[in-house]
Amino acid sequence: MVRVEIPYHLRTLAGVRGEITLDVAGVVSVKSVLDALEARYPMLEGTIRDHGTLQRRAFLRFFVCEEDWSHEPTDKPLPEVIAAGKEPLLIIGAIAGGCSPHGD
Predict the structure, then answer these.
(1) Under CATH, domain 2-93 is a member of which superfamily?
(2) Whole-structure pTM over 0.85, yes or no?
């Protein structure tokens, strides 16, 4: 069982609380986890990755064992600790920021 943590707004949309556990067949990768997540919670299709391109949405990041995997190939096998469910795959909402045009 693979463990996945998703942002609060996506948990609300899916109607789940806390961590999600998924059965993932074959090679455990970000792609296969997202495929399993969307199959179980179809209302999440298009929220984490684009419908057509399957590219990650700009304001979401993937963290694996405290490392940012957002720019890694999505079919790259995840570490055994993730595949075995010892650590969760984190899908985190990125925060945009910056200065206002008035220098505040």
Answers:
(1) Beta-grasp domain (3.10.20.30)
(2) yes
